[in-house]
Amino acid sequence: MSNIDFYAVIGAGGYGREVMPLVRQQLASQLAAGKVRLFFVVEGEPSIFKCNEYPVMALSDFKNLPGDKYFTVAIADSKVRERISSLLYDFNCKPFSIFSKNSIVMDNNKFDDGLLLSPFTTITSNVTIGKFFHANIYSYVAHDCQIGNFVTFAPGVKCNGNVIIEDHAYIGTGAVIKQGAADNKLVIGRGAIVGMGSVVTKSVPAYTTVLGNPARVFKNER
Q: Start and end of every PglD N-terminal domain (predicted)?
């Protein structure tokens, strides 16, 4: 059995290149001891074989490496994130969460697999977060929020307290979500999209795109 563990950032695009330094930072002591190796991993045959000095490997090759394999999925498309993570679970690869060194995480929070907190992010208290949540730079989640699986926060999202965000929702750069009430939480429905800079003052139905200040329905996919 290999004595080296293999860690993959799935996706070598812009976000993947932002995530890799966070992985390196988090695994600094293991890297210095020669206990881990880092890769970018892509679906299909890679068009390049090195990205920012790290090897780029096909997903099919990564799953066949000896030893323990760990992954994070740095791809914005939540459906792709779900599909790839499911595939890697089937290959007995293990997800890992990333906490930037200057992220703030307060009390009594519950996190599922694959959490990714970019620099300057904050999770306050009594927050529940599902699988493979992405919080990009300068985003925060306030108290008593419930975040579903495969939810994406673009940079600078402000999610105030007592909000429910259901699976696969996408919250655009700089959006603000008004605080709900403990007995009447504001809900962003499954697969909903909140546009860049929008101010959400009331619940958003599933598969609906909202834009503006205050946010209004732009289209509904149902």
A: 8-85
DSSP 114-136: T-EE-TT-EE-SS-EE-TT-EE-
Domains, the chain, in order of start with CATH, read 5-96 (3.40.50.20), 99-211 (2.160.10.10)
Sheet holding 128-129, edge to edge: 110-111, 128-129, 146-147, 163-165, 186-188
Q: In what order do the strands lie in the sheet with 208-211?
A: 98-99, 116-117, 134-135, 152-153, 170-171, 193-194, 208-211, 216-220
Report the candidate in 202, 207, 211, 153 with the shortest Cα–Cα distance to residue 177: 202
Distance CA 10, CA 75 (A): 7
Q: What is the pLDDT along the chain (222 residues), one digit of tens a residue?
A: 458 999 999 999 999 999 999 999 999 999 999 999 999 999 989 988 999 999 999 999 999 999 899 999 999 999 999 999 999 999 999 999 999 999 999 999 999 999 999 999 999 999 999 999 999 999 999 999 999 999 999 999 999 999 999 999 999 999 999 999 999 999 999 999 999 999 999 999 999 999 999 999 998 876
Cα radius of gyration (the chain): 18
Gap between the Cα atoms of 24 and 71, Å rounded: 13
- Kindly state the helix (H) or strand (E) to which residue 5 belongs, with its residue range: strand 5-10
Tell me phi and psi for residue 16, to 5 degrees: -60, -40
* Residue 134 falls in the annotated catalytic set: no
- State the catalytic residue, choosing from 69, 134, 143, 168: 143
The whole-angstrom separation of Cα 118 and Cα 74 is 11
